[in-house]
Design goal:
Largest sheet: 6 strands, parallel
Number of domains: 2
Helix content: 40-55%
Strand order of the largest sheet: 2-3-1-4-5-6
Structural class: alpha/beta
Distance between the termini: 29 Å
CATH topology of the largest domain: UDP-N-acetylmuramoyl-L-alanine:D-glutamate ligase
Number of strands: 12
Strand content: 15-25%
Radius of gyration: 20 Å
Length: about 325
């Protein structure tokens, strides 16, 4: 089973494996990234009944995984948004085409992406590839993480297993609902690692039900140029709608982000202390931190947020 999408693939993989383990399946999860997967050959598939592969939406990585592990029987699609990490481009159409191109003949697709136009395209593209598709989910398309429960229950149905209990599904939905971190300097939400701007917009709307504006700290990195470009476009659109007054950009592509973004942008060099960047944004208003994680700039920002949480005595992180 391959899990594809621009958001929620890790959560679906983890929760699906946990559910199957409790039901007596021998399961194993593999995450496909820039490196080769942990499993080194098809022979290792014999050790498990169900192999769940988190492949995000990288069609090149999916092809490599199929070469090593064999084609999937089931492909689960969590969501298809605008994502700078997509192989074929950051636009939503690029992402959807990348996902559709990863479906092998004979597979069954469980699609939890609720956008009608995306569903119509996937249905046509999947059929042309000799696969079948079922659309799942009657969830609120604007709710963060709404597609997760639908994707998991759809995958279970494809395995002829009953859905999750209501209480487990409700707990999953509650865990996906974002809440502000109440730091001493102001309200903050850590969205580092969210590169899908459709998902980022869902987070912003959930955090700001009264449409109040928020500041944005954008973390960039030279190895993720498309993420910076996608975030700059998103911030520009939000500024036009008066939803993001100012952007504070850090990282090795801060100058290029500032040139591309039409919103007022405060550019910080790579030597600027992360605490100073965060304090500057928080002084202006509630702040969302987004962009690439596991980079020097991203790690520095996350370390500062964690330190501020510990000082505030609040254990909950966004």
């Amino acid at each position: 089973m391959f899990v594809l999408g621009t958001v929620g693939t890790g959560a679906v993989t983890e929760r699906l494996c946990a559910v199957l383990d409790r039901r007596g399946y021998a399961t194993r999860a593999v995450t496909i990234g820039e490196d080769d997967p942990a499993l080194r050959g098809r022979g290792e598939r014999g050790a498990v009944e169900t192999l769940v592969v988190n492949a995000h939406d990288d069609s090149e990585a999916v092809r490599r995984a199929q070469d090593m592990l064999g084609p999937p029987d089931i492909v689960v699609v969590t969501a298809a948004g605008h994502d700078g990490r997509a192989t074929k481009g950051p636009g939503r159409g690029d992402v959807v085409r990348s996902i559709a191109g990863s479906v092998p003949a004979g597979a069954h697709v469980v699609n939890a992406e609720g956008t009608p136009a995306v569903r119509r395209y996937l249905a046509t593209a999947v059929e042309r590839r000799g696969a079948t598709i079922s659309h799942v989910g009657a969830h609120d398309a604007d709710a963060p993480g709404a597609e997760l429960g639908s994707a998991i229950d759809g995958a279970l149905a494809a395995l002829e297993e009953p859905p999750m209990p209501d209480e487990e599904r409700e707990a999953l939905a509650a865990a996906a609902h974002p809440e502000w971190l109440e730091l001493r300097a102001g309200r903050c939400y850590d969205a580092l690692g969210v590169t899908d701007t459709v998902a980022l917009e869902r987070l912003r709307r959930a955090l700001c039900p009264d449409r109040e504006p928020v500041e944005l700290v954008a973390v960039t990195d030279r190895d993720r140029r498309e993420v910076a470009a996608t975030l700059a476009e998103y911030a520009s659109e939000c500024h036009e709608r008066r939803q993001i007054p100012t952007v504070y950009v850090v990282g090795t592509l801060a100058d290029q982000f500032a040139d591309r973004c039409t919103a007022p942008t405060v550019e910080h060099g790579i030597d600027t202390p992360a605490g100073r960047v965060l304090d500057e944004a928080l002084a202006a208003g509630p702040t969302i931190v987004a962009g690439v994680e596991e980079t020097p700039a991203g790690t520095a920002i996350e370390d500062v947020i964690t330190e501020r949480i510990e000082r505030s005595g609040r254990p909950t992180i966004g």
